[in-house]
Specification:
CATH architecture: Orthogonal Bundle
Strand content: 5-15%
Number of strands: 2
Structural class: mainly alpha
Order of helices and strands: HHHEEHHHH
CATH topology: Arc Repressor Mutant, subunit A
CATH class: Mainly Alpha
Distance between the termini: 17 Å
Largest sheet: 2 strands, antiparallel
């Protein structure tokens, strides 16, 4: 039986790490520079950067001063934006958005739980920007969650 959980794919992890490198770089960076900075596979990162460019999160320029840069300030790019650009909606139930699920009988209220799960993801991911992570200054509500020792324990 497969263990289902909130899953952050490598594509999202790598994409966020590359964007964090861009957030602190101060100048355009090539895919190779970003891959080297974060220890990422260059070819896979190139494909991720192409997706981020198509979604409007990064811009690219050619030439001697070329490379990738953030398309808007790091403070304006939320982690949820990156996840949606690279992996789709924050929460799905059997391929449906939580509000599109429907249950009957004893499970009639299950939809509310799935909506609440999505809301809890949004409470973190829509409020943390690349600038917050790069500076190590998380919003109070998020910092409070990580301050709980139980948050660091597997269950």
């Amino acid at each position: 039986m497969q263990n289902h959980r909130v899953h952050i794919p490598a594509k999202v992890d790598y994409g966020i790490r590359a964007l964090l490198s861009l957030a602190v770089a101060g100048a355009p960076q090539t895919a190779e520079e970003l891959a080297s900075d974060q220890g990422l596979p260059p070819r896979f990162l190139g494909a991720i950067l192409a997706d981020l460019r198509r979604s409007g999160l990064v811009a690219s320029q050619r030439g001697a001063e070329g490379g990738y840069r953030l398309a808007r300030p790091a403070a304006d790019i939320k982690l949820a934006d990156v996840i949606r650009a690279l992996d789709g909606p924050l929460a799905e139930v059997r391929g449906f958005r939580p509000e599109a699920t429907h249950y009957e009988g004893s499970a009639v209220h299950l939809q509310e739980i799935w909506v609440a799960v999505r809301a809890s993801l949004r409470a973190v991911l829509e409020h943390v920007s690349l600038a917050d992570v790069a500076a190590g200054k998380l919003p109070k509500e998020v910092a409070r969650l990580t301050a709980d020792p139980d948050a660091w324990e597997p269950h």
